[in-house]
Amino acid sequence: MVIWSGLRKLCGRGHPSRMSGNFPEVAAKLAAIAQGFHARGWLLGTSGSLSAVVQREPLQLAMSPSGVDKGELRVDQMLAIDEQARIVNRDSGKPSDESLLHIRVVKERGAGAVLHTHSVWNTILSDLYAADGGVKIEGYEMLKGLQGVRTHEHSEWLPIVDNSQDMPSLAESIAQTLNEHKGAHGFLLRRHGLYSWGETLDEAKRHVEILEFLLETMGRTLHLRNAV
Amino acid sequence: MVIWSGLRKLCGRGHPSRMSGNFPEVAAKLAAIAQGFHARGWLLGTSGSLSAVVQREPLQLAMSPSGVDKGELRVDQMLAIDEQARIVNRDSGKPSDESLLHIRVVKERGAGAVLHTHSVWNTILSDLYAADGGVKIEGYEMLKGLQGVRTHEHSEWLPIVDNSQDMPSLAESIAQTLNEHKGAHGFLLRRHGLYSWGETLDEAKRHVEILEFLLETMGRTLHLRNAV
Amino acid sequence: MVIWSGLRKLCGRGHPSRMSGNFPEVAAKLAAIAQGFHARGWLLGTSGSLSAVVQREPLQLAMSPSGVDKGELRVDQMLAIDEQARIVNRDSGKPSDESLLHIRVVKERGAGAVLHTHSVWNTILSDLYAADGGVKIEGYEMLKGLQGVRTHEHSEWLPIVDNSQDMPSLAESIAQTLNEHKGAHGFLLRRHGLYSWGETLDEAKRHVEILEFLLETMGRTLHLRNAV
Amino acid sequence: MVIWSGLRKLCGRGHPSRMSGNFPEVAAKLAAIAQGFHARGWLLGTSGSLSAVVQREPLQLAMSPSGVDKGELRVDQMLAIDEQARIVNRDSGKPSDESLLHIRVVKERGAGAVLHTHSVWNTILSDLYAADGGVKIEGYEMLKGLQGVRTHEHSEWLPIVDNSQDMPSLAESIAQTLNEHKGAHGFLLRRHGLYSWGETLDEAKRHVEILEFLLETMGRTLHLRNAV
After folding, report:
1. What are the E-state strand segments in chain A?
2. Chain D residues touching residue C209 (CB < 8 angstroms)
3. Local structure of residue A64 (DSSP, 8 states)
4. Range with the poorest average pLDDT among B15-29, B179-193, C168-182
C-alpha cells in the first residue's frame, strides 16, 4: 500500500525525460524487498543499500537513499542516479554512500541489480574468516540456487574485502577482487556486510537469501564442532 | 489476497478436463503454506518444494514450480503434474527438479501431501549425524503430534540419505530407506533438507513444524552439553 | 478478520443457555493469542493449549480444541468445557488432552486463564535442569512483570514436573507441586513445555512472555559461560 | 489501524490546553515503534518504555503507560507527562516506573526521544560485562549509523549501570554516567535493558536497532571464539 501510493506522485515530478520508463516498477520492487529484508533483521538502523539498473546507455540506477529506515522505505524516496552517482530524478535527496560500489559491481558483472545487507551472521563471518581472505562454502544443495551452479558439489568462494570509508579506493579493491574471482556471486566487506547481485532483481534477491542462509548455517555449525 | 485472486484466472485456462476439481483449493493452500514457511526461513532462495495429491487414479499432484520465490508464490503459478512429473494443466512452466521424489514418497507411503524444507537446523543436523545414517529423536512430548504416536516415550528415527543430483537414482535410495524404516515420518537429505508428508496437507504441515522444532531443539541442546 | 468473522456463527449455535455471556469475547482473545504465539514458534505442530474461565459457578472454561493448527485457530472452533472437561457448547469437537491440567491450575491458583506453550528454550531447560527439580531465575528486572513481584531482587523457582500421558495422575503431581511452591508463576513439564497463568488473560499472556524471555536468556547465557 | 483510530478520541479529551499540538502524531509514532519492537521480542511482557518530547518549555513528554502490552499499545493509552512525571493529559493512567529516567536522559542529552528495550542479548551482555563497567564496541561499519560517527574506526563505550528500584537514585547514577561518557549513544542497566535516545524519534529508533544488532553480533561472536 505504502509502496504503490507513492507511484503516482513520483511519476509526476523529478526529471521524467531522463528517467527510464520502468523506474516506478523497479522502485516499488526495491522498496518491497527492503521491507522484507528489514523484517529479517538484515537492514537494521538504516543500514544496507539496494539498487537496480533501469537503463544501460547511459547507465541509470534506481537506488535507495541514504539514512532512511528500510522498514518504511517509500517509492517516492527512491532515487535515480547516473554512473557518477548523481541524482537525476529529483532536486533533493542523498544517494547511499556506497552508490559507487553498486555502480562498480554493475559494470564489472553486467548485473541488473545489486543488494547489500548487514546481517548478524554475515558480519560475524566476514571477520572470522578475514585472515583467509574469504569464506569457502561447499557441498550444500542450497548452492544450486546460485546462477549457473548445477550441483551441490560446487565450491563457492565468497571473497572478503577490507572495509574502508574511501569509496573510490574501495571500489577499486572490489573491482580487483571481482576480477580475481570471476565465479563469485557475492563478496563480504569485513565487519560490514554482504554484497550480492543478479541479472534481475529477482535473481539478486535469491542470491542474498541463499548466501545469508549459508553463512548462518556455517556459523551455527562452527558452534557445534566437536559437540557430537 | 494474492492467493485467491489467482483462482479465477487459473480455473479458466490450462487443461481443465484433466485436472481434479479440487486443484484450485489445494493450490491455494500450498501457496499459503509456502508463504508461511518462507517467512520462517525454511524456503529461502526459491529452495524447497510442496505438493499435494489432487487425484489418485491416474495420479495427479498439485506441485510448486521450480525457481519461484516461495514468499510470493501465486496460485496461478502452481502446476498439476502426472506420475511421470509431466505438467498437465499448462503449456509452460517447469516443475521442481525434485518432483520425482515427491511422487515416490506419495507412492511408498500413500501420502496425500509432501513438503520439503531447507532450514538452517535441518541442514546442520543432516550433516552432523550423517555418519550415523539418521537422527534419533526420543522422549519429547512434541513427538505425539506425529501421526500414530501416542506417547512422548517414542523413539523416532529420521533417516539421512546422501544427496545426489541424479533424481531417478535418488528416488530409488529414498524408496529403499522408506522401506527399511516403515515408521519414519520424514527423512533428511544430507546438507540439503527435510522431507515430510501426511495423509492430508494439514498433517504434512504439522509434521514439518514438529520435525523442524525438534531438530532445532536438539541442535541447541548440543551447544549446551557439559554447560551445566 | 478470521477471528471476528466466526463470532456471529458461533453465537448462533451450540448450547447458548449453558454458555457464559462473555464466551465469544474470550474465545476471540484466545484465538488472537494463539496466532501470535504460533508466529513466535511457541505453538508449532498443533502443540500447546489455551484456556480462560468464562464462569466460576459452575466452572466453565473456553478452551482450545485438540489437534488444531494454532496459527489458524478460529473462534468457531473454540470449545466451552465444564470442570470434568466435557464440551458444553457443541455437539462435536475434542478438547485438548491436557484440559484436566488447565482445570487443576484454575482450581489450585484461582486463575482466570491458563496458557501452555512448547518453545525450543522451555523444552531445553526443562530437561537440562530436571535433576534439580526446577529452574531458579533471579536478579532480572524482567521478573518485576510477574504478578506481586516488586523488585529484580526476586528469586523465582520454576518447578519441573516429570512428563506423563496419565492425565489424572499428572494433574495430581501438578497440584502437589503447586502446593509446595505457592509463589510459583508457572511450571515446566520435562521435555514438554511451560504452563503459566494469571488472574486475567492479559496477565497470563504477560507471564508467558516473561518466562519464555527469561528461559531463552538463561539458555543463551549458559552458552557463554567461561567465554569472556 | 489501531493506532490512528484512537486519535480522534484522544484529541477530544484530557487537558488539551496543556498538551502540545503534535502530541497525537508523536503518540502514534511511539505506538507504531512499540508494536515493531514487540514483534522483534525487545518489549515482551509489558517491559520497556518509550517517550518523545512534545514541548520543551515547560517540558512535556509523550510516554508509554505502565503495564500495557507493547504489541497492542494504542494511541489513546499514551500519556503526556511533565518534568515531575505527572500526567497532564488524562485523569487516570499510570506512567512507566522509569519515567524519571527518561526525563533525566532528555535533560542531560537534550534528546528529543528516549527508547528503552529489554532484549535477550542486551540483558545477557549487560551482565557479562558488568565487571568492566561497560561494553566496548569497535570496528563495525554499523557504528556509522550512530549520530556523529563518520567511520567504522570508532570505539563506542556503552556504559553499564547497576540496576535499582530506587528511581531518583538511579536517575542520579545515570546522570553521572552520562557526564563521564559524553560520547555515549546509550547505556545498559545490568540484567535489565538498554536505553538509547536521539534528537528525533527516527534517530532514537535507528540507535536502538544499531545497538541491538551490535550486541547480538558481539554475543554470538563470543560463542565462536577459538572455534576456527
Report:
1. 49-55, 60-63, 79-81, 113-117, 134-138, 155-161, 186-189, 193-198
2. 44-45
3. P
4. B15-29
- Residues D166-178 pLDDT 10s: 999 999 999 999 9
Nearest to B197 by CA among B211, B213, B181: B211
- C-alpha cell belonging to residue A145: 540456487
Give CA A194 to chain center in angstroms. 7
Looking at the DSSP bridge assignments, the partners of residue C65 are C95
Q: What distance in Å separates the CA atoms of residue B198 and residue B206, rounded to the nearest whole number?
A: 8
The total number of residues shown for chain B amounts to 228
| pLDDT surpassing 60 at residue D86 | yes
Cis peptide before A58 (omega within 30 of 0): yes
Tell me whether residue C83 is exposed, middle or buried, using C-beta atoms within 10 angstroms of its C-beta: 0 to 12, 13 to 18, 19 or more.
middle
CB contact under 8 A, D124 and C212: no
Q: Which of D36, D71, D208, D32 is nearest to C208 (CA)?
A: D71
Q: Are B197 and B170 in contact (CB under 8 A)?
A: no
Cβ separation B217–C124 shorter than 8 A = yes
Cross-chain Cβ contact D191/C224 below 8 Å: no
Backbone angles phi, psi at B224, to 5 degrees: -90, -5
| DSSP string for B104-138 | HHHHHH--SEEEEE--HHHHHHHHHTGGGTEEEEE
Q: Quick check: C163 and C80 in contact, CB under 8 A?
A: no
**Mean pLDDT of all residues belonging to chain A:** 91
Q: Report the predicted TM-score, pTM, of the whole model to 2 decimal places.
A: 0.92
ipTM of the complex: 0.91
- In this prediction, residue A12 carries a pLDDT of 35
pLDDT computed for residue C97 by the predictor: 86
The minimal CB distance from B219 to the residues A40, A216, A224 is found for: A224
d(CA D129, CA D136): 9
Q: Which chains touch C (3 or more CB pairs under 8 A)?
A: B, D
Indicate the SS3 state at residue A159.
Answer: strand
Q: What is the reported pLDDT for D227?
A: 53
Cα C98 to Cα C87: distance, rounded to the nearest angstrom: 14
Contact C222, B224 (CB under 8 A): yes
Strands D155-161 and D186-189: parallel
Q: Comparing C-alpha atoms, which of B150, B152, B146, B214 is closest to residue C189?
A: B152
Closest among A113, C125, D140 to B217, alpha carbons compared: C125
Q: Which amino acid belongs to residue A137? A: I
Q: Using one digit for the tens of pLDDT, what is the confidence trace for B73-126?
A: 999 999 999 999 999 988 888 888 899 999 999 999 999 999 999 999 999 999
